[in-house]
Structure formats: C-alpha cells, structure tokens
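Before surveying the methods themselves, we first show a specimen of the format, giving the amino acid sequence and backbone structure tokens:

:::
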Amino acid sequence: MLRTLIKINFLRLIAPRRRKNGRPQKVSANAKTLIAVYAAIGLLFAFAFTGMAFGISEAAKVIGSWFFLEIAGTSAFLIMFIGSIFYAVNSLYDAKDNDLLLAMPIKPGTIVLSRLVTLLLMNAFYDVTAILPFAVVGSITGAITAPQAAMLIVNNLFLMAGSNALICFIAWLISMATSRSRHKNAVQTVIMLFAFAVYMVIYPNMGRFVSLAVNEPEAVSAAMSKILPFYVFGKACAGDFGSAALFALCSSAGFAGAYWLLQHSFLKVLTTKISVIRREYRGGSSKVRSRRTALVFKEIRRFVSSPVYMFNAGLGLIIMPAAAIYLAVTSGKENSLVALLGSFGSHTAAASAAAIMMFVLSMTMISAPSVSLEGKMLWIIRTSPARGSEVLTAKADAHSLICLPFTAVSSLITFIATRDAFGTLLVFVSLVAATAVMAHIGVTTNMRFPRFDNESDTRTIKQSAAVMLSMLWGALYTIATVFAGAVAARFIDGYAVLLMSAAISAATAFLLRRRLKRSLADKFDSFPA
C-alpha cells in the first residue's frame, strides 16, 4: 500500500495518465509539457547557482573549503524551503483525498510516510539544482578537492532529510494555527506575506553577499561560523568526521521525529473543528445581475477567497506598485533609472516605465489556472445555461478587472517619476491593453492543458503546466513588444511608441478572445458535465 500511495503522489506531481480502451497507461501530453517546463526551470536555477559558486570559490581560497561547502548547503536548504513549504501544508493536511484515504483500511502513518517520501522526491529536484553546480564549480576552480566533493554529495542526503524535517514541522505549526482559527484565510495570507518579505530580503542581496565575501572574507567567515547547522555541514563535507557523524545523527533524528509528530497529530489536526457563532438570518433584497456579470463576479470571488491563489497568481499586483514607487523615489537623482531612460529620446522615459510595468504584469497569472480550478465542480458550470464562450471570456475579464486598480495606481505613481501627464495616460492605456493580452493568454493556455483531478488547489495554481507556460508566453510577448518598441523609439516619438504598443496588445487580445469564443468554447462545451 505504501508503494502504491507513493506512486500515486509522485504521478500527481507531474500530470495525470490516460488509458484508452484498456490499453497500457501512457503519459499524457500535459505531463510531457510539464516535465519539459520543470527541466527548463531546473536549468535556470542551475545556471544561477553556477554563477554564485564561481564568486564564492574566490572567497573560499582565502577563508577555506568549509566556507564554500557551507554556502552550498545553505543555498540548497533555502531553495528547498521556499519551494516546498506551502506545498507541504497542502499535501499533508489540505489534500482533498484525506477523507477518502482515512475511510479505507490505511493507517495514518502510512499516509503520512507516503507524503513525506513524495515531498523528499520533490525537494531532491530543488536540491540538485543547487548542490550539483557547487560540486562541479568547486572541483574545477580548486575550491574543494575530489574527496570533499564526494562528501558534499553524501552529506547532502542528510541535509535533505533534515530540511524536510524542519519543513514538515513548520507545516504542522501552520496547520495547527489555521485549524484553530475562525479566519483561516487571513492567517494563511499573513504567513505567505511574511515568507514573501523574507524572500525579498534574501534574494536581492545574494550578489551583494558574494561581493562582500570576496572583499571582506574575514568578517563573512566569522558571521557564517555562527550559523551552527550549516557550519557543521560545511565542516563535515570538508573532512571533519566528528562533524559528519553529528550532522548525520541530528538530521536522521529530526526526520524520524517529524514523522512521529505528523503521524500522531494527523487525525487531530484534520478533525479539529472550530465552533462558529450562529448568526440570525436577516432577509433582504438581492441584486439581479446578468449572466455575464454573475460569471465575472464568480471568478473574482474565487480569487479573493483563496490566499494561495491571491499570493501565487497575483504576485505581480504587489510588485507593480512597488516598482512604480521605486521609480518615483529615485527620479530626482542624477543617475536614476528615469533620467537614464529619458536620455534616449523624446518622451522615452514614460515608454520605458511602461515596459518595466509590462514585465511585472507577466508575473500575474490569475486566469491561467482558472479553468482547472473548476475541478470536480465543473459539472455545475457545465449544466448551467451559460455558454462556453461566456464562461471563458468571463475568466479573462475577471483577470483584467482585478488588475485594473493596481494598474491605475501604478500609472499615477509613474507620473511623479516622469512628470509627464499625457505620457502617464498613455502608460495606463498600454498597460490595460497588455493586461488583456496576459488574461487571454492564461485562459487559452489553460484550455490547452486543462487538469481537473488535482486533490488541492495549491497544486493546480503552483505546479500546473498551464501556469508555467502562461508565464513563459507572457514574458516572451513582453520581450517581443519591448524590443519592437525599442527599435521604433530610434525613429519615432515615445508617445507614438506607447500608442503602437497599445494597438499591438489590443489586436493580440482581440484575436485571442475570438479564439476563446470559437474553437476553445466548443472544446469547453465538450467537457463531460
């Protein structure tokens, strides 16, 4: 049974399988696409860590090999923690098949162990993208020896076990906190914002840390030696067998302790119920909406009711005003980005500000998982009098409406930076048109790769091929539009560039919407109710 559960959980990480007429199962096109996307993401991570490893290798020649190995372990832990903490919460306690599994003759410990192993396999992907570049670069540059590279690989197995133990413990704390709260969504949102704040502190300062390690190795060495778990890991990989034994023992004990804790608290967390104060029903008039308006508001309510959905799909909405504020705050400086962009030609500062905002907009993927999020409730919308074209265009329109206030605020803030009223208006128009493109790209891609069998919304929102490909297509579209605008700016005014960008985006959105109303609407209507 354990082996079967692990196999099922692992396949769900990739995509469903399909069976036709009793023939052997084959991996679906969705799975193949998702595997290719995972491979591309892994290569990007590996490339980033390779550059970091080259910088750290210079400092390691002064500080010592343990420092290089400690940074390798720290990097691997951070990417595992950031990549899987919320997945751990949802896969352990919020999975939709928990009730089904508990109703079967399966012990809670077996369910927990199968999900721990799946989490371990998932983190192995993140871990390899960090550890392997450090091992290769360290061996090439001479920062570590061949035996130390081998010890890095061996001790890394215990690092994965210890990291998973900590991730599971924090997931247990989050689940305990949310299960006892009447405001579960608010608690999850606060936790996610805190995690995002930590990420925004760590990630932008990685390059600064590498430079500091090269220029002031003694100070960095003293600071890193105080982070005991990773310091012990670095010493263990450097050849200190006492540290290796201590690290292996603590990691193994931590993993065993996490399993024991989750096994004994699994039922308690799932069955915890919060008493809710009964409120007296007071009738009142209801506002009658058109079918189209009702569908749009349904999508908006779906978005704002899920912290996971808001945080992961709406991340660009948080970053866009922040980017506009940065442009406004630094606009008065001589070497500011606005001054630099404005030096390329007439009114190009406004056009360049719009380009920056467009890149941020490509990170907003509200519509990308919207079709798949119908899940097992798809039959409700399919049996309603709404046509497929109305459902799909409502999902795109909801995306645009949610983004509209943030786009307006960001455009107004850019006025402080550019001091160009007409340019600010054109920035807003071009961003609205670009938002419409991103919204329709999301629905179109999701209709190409729909998936209705996920046991949690988190997996649909964070790990589906539709979301990853939508972000990729959105980024490519933005790059192509910005490149065309940069070339055009050599010959025409910045205002004309913004108008050209808005026209291109409007035409693209129109063509995508036309496809939604025709072929993709027919495909949606063919889904089984």
About this structure: The chain has two domains: 2-8+28-271, 291-526. The longest helix spans residues 29-63.
